[in-house]
Amino acid sequence: MIQQENIHRYLNGRMTPEERQLFEQEMAADKKLAEAVDLQRDMAHFFKTHEPELEQQLGDLGDQYFGQHKKVASLKFWGWLIPILLIALLAIKWLCTSSEPALEETPPPKEIATEPVQLEPADDQGPAVTPDPPPAEPSTPVQEETKNDAPAPEKPVVQDRPIASIDETAFNVNPVMESLLSERVRHSTVTRIISPSPDTVFKSQTAIPFLLKGQTSAKPPFELLIYSNRMSDFDNDRPVLKKVLTGAKDNNAHRFQFKANLTLNDGLYYWMLRSENSGELLHVSKFRKKKN
Fold first, then answer.
1. Long-range contacts of range 213-216, CB-CB < 8 Å, 24 or more positions apart?
2. Claim: this prediction has a pTM higher than 0.90
3. Which of 94, 152, 165, 192 is 20 to 30 A off residue 61, Cα-Cα?
């Protein structure tokens, strides 16, 4: 579009000497630009020299046509026909001189293929994907047929019981905890445990009723810790239960109690009671949990 304006300014002599020199250098380097300048120069010269002849020819044709149709000819008809012919002549002249800009004014078709137009099919595809669930329906009957054909689901149920009974490592003793158990007198405090009894065996298919009850000359609060028999759990201080207990003063001692239903796997467990403030170990014991 800028080059077209420069061509009009060049042909009409509206450029400064410096602009004219630069534009002629561009024409020397750009063959298409030079051809466009020559084409517009020739078209302008043609219309300038032949415009009177074209107007005369159009007038003669009009006289011949309307001479044969006198009934149709009238002053009103001539009044709008001549301007139309002149407009057509000027339109032809303008189209010839501005053929290149017309090609540059074609971005509207590009704007039609914009992203918003492409988003509409994407929205339509959303609900179209929803019919995917129907293919899942035949899959459910296939699973039911496999269940009816072979009693495979019964195998996992049978495996659960032998695995628990075969896992004998869950009942191995922990040497460190056993060493603490052998130390009957550990400190100056006196602690008496009423429940549970040492080496208690809880037989239950689900949770076990754990009741800790006793008294001590140590001051509360107290900390109850239950560990599995694994050395890693004790070394990394990963108890299966950690509970803070308060105590009720009774003369020179403090009574404490904890009751809960514990869900534990079969195995050997150690529990200890210690002072939360000083960390002093007050008591250590153990129990087992078995299904049978």
1. 213/256, 213/257, 213/258, 214/255, 214/256, 214/273, 214/283, 215/191, 215/250, 215/253, 215/254, 215/255, 215/256, 216/189, 216/190, 216/191, 216/192, 216/247, 216/253, 216/254, 216/256, 216/273, 216/282, 216/283
2. no
3. 94
